Amino acid sequence: MSTKIRIFGGIEGGATKTICKLLSENGEILASENGGPTNPWTLGIGEKEDGFKIASLRLYDLILKCMDQIGPEKDSKFIRTKQNQEFTLAAVGLCLSGAGCKVANARIKSELENLGLDCEIYVGNDTIAPIFNSFENGGLVIISGTGSKCVLVNPIDDAAQLKSFDDIPSYSSGGWGNLLGDEGSAYWIAQKAIKFALDYNDNFLFENCETLIEQEAEELKHLIFEHFNIDNFDALLPYFYSDFKKDFIAGLTAKLSKIAIQNEVVREIFEESGYQIARHILALQPKIDKKLFSMPGGLPIFCAGSVFKSWSLIKPGFVRCLVNQNGKFKNLKELNLVVADGDSTVGACLITSKLYDNKLDLIKTHKRKILTLDHFYISQFKSYNYCGNDEYPHSIDIQIPKEA
Q1: Which Pfam family, giving just one, matches this sequence (predicted)?
Q2: pLDDT at 256 exceeding the cut of 90
């Protein structure tokens, strides 16, 4: 007689890529599969197709590919057998960029049900997975990848009966996309750099500093032309209008980071990015449970996204914002910034198991793999107009994983 084991699926989807994992009720990772972008609001732009249908089909295919890794079907695509064991997909938790609001959540769930996904389906935004992947009971996650958003999850009472992502005590700032937000993101950095190059080209800079930045502007122009494979600024227009590709535009930021040290114009854009990222955290400060401020090491903050690969570039602006506003937020004294050792998709599996069966304690028993990005007390910084690297005794440069 075969042993029956429940499976909990977790998906972490963004504007650039999507990862799906399956976790058994015993805490074992059974399968993992990577796919393309699944933000329903940005998919289909230009082709005039339904982004929700495209995203849902990609999500469904990822789940099936993961199920195929376990073993052959038994009566259903979502029941598989392996070595005298029967694995049944009990629930899937979708943590997606572009989800989180009721309209998007309901639409994605409906599309997946129409495709035949036969299990419980939970839909939420893409910041939920990193929180539960990194912390046992609450914290903040700040995402600065293609886009940007910050979410706070306050500690959950053990007796709480959670039935959906909406029941999680959470608050958010940002996440409004490139037209209404994305401050501090890779897209934001790239757009600011391109706008500066355009303004310089059009003689829109009126500070009488053109001759001082001529070399920097020319270097920036060359890099932009190289990235987009163009030889004039007019050729940029399709990338932003008729054939908009947010992730490709955001990809310019990785190249900008390589010239930022010696290019003052680009360096200042990165510093301003750090300032904008910190604003997301300050916006949520009044909502933070006091228990989180007293956590060992300080306020736990998970940092996700490619922009944090350039932490030494964005940290001056990040700290400047915190020190500027320190008088208004007395509780904000010590920060513990961490990154994932790998992706955060398991976090989606963990919270999905909790939503499906409150008695499961996978969130508490899961062995987390996180790395320290930085740790500091805000009071250690005296000057906030400009913060050089010498003012960061605790800062470390590490190889941060690719965008979560």
Answers
A1: BcrAD_BadFG
A2: yes
